[in-house]
Amino acid sequence: ILEVCESDFASNLAKEESEEADAQDEYEKMTQENKVTKTTKDQDVKYKTQESKSLDKTATEISSDRDTANTEYAAVMDYYAKIKERCIAKPEAYETRKARREAEIQGLKQALATLEDETAFVQRKRRSGLRGAALAA
Fold first, then answer.
1. Residue 92 to residue 23: CA distance in whole angstroms
2. What does pTM read for this prediction?
3. C-alpha distances out from residue 17 to 22, 43, 121, 134, Å
4. How far apart are CA 75 and CA 73, in angstroms?
C-alpha cells in the first residue's frame, strides 16, 4: 500500500510541479506583455502630451493671427467707408436742386437788373471828349 501511495504521491507531485511550472511560465509571459504594453502606453501618453501642447500653441498663434486680421479688416472697412462717402457721387435731392436753381435764377435776375440800371446811367451821361470837340470845331 505504501508503494502505491508513494507512487500516487510522486505522480501527483510531478503533475503539480508541471502545472506550477506552466503557471509560472504563463505568469512571466503575461508580466512581460504587461511591461511592454505599459511602456508603449507611457510613450503614447508622452507623445500625445507633446502633440497636445504643440496644438495648443498653434491654436493660440492662429487665434492671435485671426484677431490681428480682424482688427486690420475693421480698420480697412472704416477707411473704406470714409473714402466711399467722399468719392462716390450721391444723387442730389429734387428739392435741393430746385432751391439751388431758384437761388441762382434770383441772383441772375438781380445782376441783370443792376446791369440795366447802370446801362441807363451810362447812356444818360453827357458825352464829352475828343470826338465831341472835333465835331464842334
1. 101
2. 0.44
3. 8, 39, 150, 165
4. 5
